Amino acid sequence: MARYKIATPAGESFTVAGGGYALEMEALDGMDAAIVEVPADEDGFIAAVGDCDAVYAKGMNFTARMIAALPDRCRGIVLGTVGVDYVDVAAATARGIPVTNCPDTFIDEVADHAMALLLAGHRRIIEQDRMVRDGRWRDGRPQLLQVPRLMGSTLGFVAFGRVARLTAARARAFGLNLMAYDPFIEELVIHEHGVRPSTLEEVLRGSDFVSMHAPATPEARAMLTEKHFRTMKPTAWFINTGRGSTVDEAALIRALEGGWIAGAALDVLEQEPPRQDNPLLRMPNVVLSPHNASASARFDLARKRRVGQELSLILSGRWPMSCVNPTVLPGSDLRRWQPYSMERGPNS
Questions:
Q1: Distance (Å, rounded) from C-alpha 221 to C-alpha 230?
Q2: Closest by CA position to 93, among listed 103, 84, 80
Q3: I want to staple 53 with a disulfide (CB 3.0 to 4.6 A). Which of 4, 14, 59, 193 is the partner?
Q4: Which of 322, 310, 318 is nearest to 26 (CA)?
Q5: Which strands sit side by side in the sheet containing 4-9, from one edge to the other?
Q6: Element (H, E) at 6
């Protein structure tokens, strides 16, 4: 029996490359550790984790009851994703258990996708494609004659974390003016990226494109409501590559149906996959993708290796690189081994 048991729900998540844990185990080589699959249901998980040293969280929601069942020897809950909304972080914090994520592994892909959605919406790419396929070749130019020039337009960010900053760098090349609202980041940091620090109202009222990047925290749930969409320009597009739960989707639908905004480009929805009667699926001024902004050929390779690195750190008694509840670290039996970034916050 291995010295360290890493419990993980049976089955893969987010993968198209097949099973196995060879990539995660690379960083664990020589540590006498084993990744052990346990039942992927709450009761089965609880019955199987009484002797685990860490949890590799994937494939299901991790409730307070499941976290309460973890033994005192459990040194961490490690995620292979940016989002941590499927883990009860508050319950883990109360237990003094670090929770880690992958905040910087595939953020370039998400920034690329955000720009792709912006451009697809602005240039009406989906509608233009349908015109060509439907034999309406001559209808394309008249539609775009009503679309303003992209250069000189304004892109506003709601939250200005890693992905938003990379998106801003891409948008600058297209000649967009940039502004951002983020009450958790110093204005000087925002300004250093060539972006104007702004209030939420200023971003909504002054932007031609509003890009949502807020994490799925309890505080950010349904953060944007009807009053916010009514504040936006009727010619503005709303883009979301963050989390669907940060938006009141019913209010967004009303905004699109009522012409309060021009359109929406969404990689995330309130319910995923959406019900087939969701009005967003039928709207010509909506561009959709299936919550895959982070996907690329390196997705599985990078995130699985990052999981292995974090597991190796905590099992060898060191602080993880990306702890989303860092207040637990000083009181843990893990030792600090690197400078601690003051910019890192929950789900950063």
A1: 19
A2: 84
A3: 4
A4: 310
A5: 33-38, 4-9, 54-57, 77-79, 99-100
A6: strand 4-9
Which positions are annotated as active-site residues? 243, 272, 291
Whole-model pTM over 0.70 = yes
Paired sense of beta strands 286-288 and 77-79, if any:
unpaired
pLDDT digits (tens, 9 = 90+) for 98-155: 999 998 888 999 999 999 999 999 999 999 999 999 999 999 999 999 999 999 999 9
Residue with structure tokens 């950063």?
A: 348
Q: Estimate to the nearest angstrom the gap between the alpha carbon of 249 and the chain centroid.
A: 17
* Token pair recorded at residue 214: 């807020």
- 143-159 confidence digits (pLDDT tens): 999 999 999 999 999 99
Q: pLDDT tens for residues 10-47?
A: 986 665 555 689 999 999 999 999 999 999 999 999 99
